[in-house]
Structures are given as structure tokens and as C-alpha cells.
Amino acid sequence: IRLWARGSTCSADRDLNGQVIVITGANTGIGKETMRELAKRPCTIIFGARDARKSEEAIKEILRENKGARLHF
Questions:
Q1: Which helix (H) or strand (E) holds 72?
Q2: In this structure, what are the phi and psi dihedrals at residue 11, rounded to the nearest 5 degrees?
Q3: For residues 59 and 8, which has the higher predicted lDDT (pLDDT)?
Q4: Residue 29 and residue 16: Cα distance in Å, rounded?
Q5: 55, 47 in Cβ contact below 8 A?
Q6: pLDDT tens profile 2-21
């Protein structure tokens, strides 16, 4: 049950170098987790959300984990 509750992570190995990815609602929930996983890859992430303050917090959090991530709000 613990493995199921923890969920899974993306194991795809597609090369995203030079790609631009747009995510909506990336400051919380599944959008944020998607952004967190994609930030580990060499791509540019553009995301939108309604709350600018939460978005800036999400950016700081993800940049702490992935220093070279290219995130744009």
C-alpha cells in the first residue's frame, strides 16, 4: 500500500534538450510535480498559475533542487 500511495515517477528517457514545455497550474498539485520532474531535464519550462506569490515560492523550491533548471513564470 505504501508503494501505491507514494505514486510513481516518470521513467521516460526521451531527450528534451532544446524543447520548450508549457504547464498550467504549476504552483501546486500535479502541475508542480510535473514541473519538478521536468526541471531535471535539459528543457525550458514556461508555466502559468493564478497566484504569483505561490508561483515564486514553487520556483525557489524547485531551483534549490535543480540549480540549472530553466523556469519562466
A1: strand 70-72
A2: -110, 10
A3: 59
A4: 23
A5: yes
A6: 776 777 666 777 888 999 99
How confident is the model at residue 1, as a pLDDT? Answer: 67
**Cβ count within 10 A of residue 29:** 9
User: Measured at the alpha carbon of residue 15, what is the angle toward residues 5 and 23, in degrees to the nearest 5?
Assistant: 55
Residue-level pLDDT at 10: 66
Query: How would DSSP label each residue in 18-70?
Result: T-EEEEESTTSHHHHHHHHHHTTSS-EEEEE-S-HHHHHHHHHHHHHH-TT-E
Q: What type of residue is 59?
A: I
6-13 contacts, C-beta under 8 A, 24 or more apart: 9/37, 10/37
* Cα torsion through 14, 35, 29, 46, rounded to 10: -120
Q: Give me 33's grid cell.
A: 510535480
